[in-house]
Amino acid sequence: MTRIDHYEFGRIVVDGREETKDLIVLPDRVVRNWWRRDGHALVLDDLVEVLDELPSHLVVGPAPTAACGPIPTRSSGCSSAA
Questions:
Q1: What is the span of the domain harbouring residue 63?
Q2: Residue at 10 is within a domain
Q3: Per residue, what are the HEC states of the chain?
């Protein structure tokens, strides 16, 4: 089981190893050298590599539609509910 030892802005220690770049922490592994396609935005395609490893209760509903953009926000007026 992966263990997060410490976290602060810009720095995380996972299993005793300090990290200062984006990564994905999963129960059984760490995906290092991970980057988002669009800077600080997160789109579904950024997570394709790990979606099958996430517990089903964390993956909810259909993917947002293109009309709403990558991730709908309250201010966008879009909803992922059908």
A1: 4-70
A2: yes
A3: CCCEEEEECCEEEECCEEECCCCEECCCCEECCCCCCECCECCHHHHCCCHHHCCHHHCCCCCCCHHHCCCCCHHHCCCCCC
Looking up tokens 């802005």 gives 9
- pTM value is 0.59
Count of the separate structural domains present in the chain: 1
pLDDT tens digit string along 35-59? 888 888 888 888 888 888 877 766 6
Relative to beta strand 4-8, strand 30-31 is unpaired
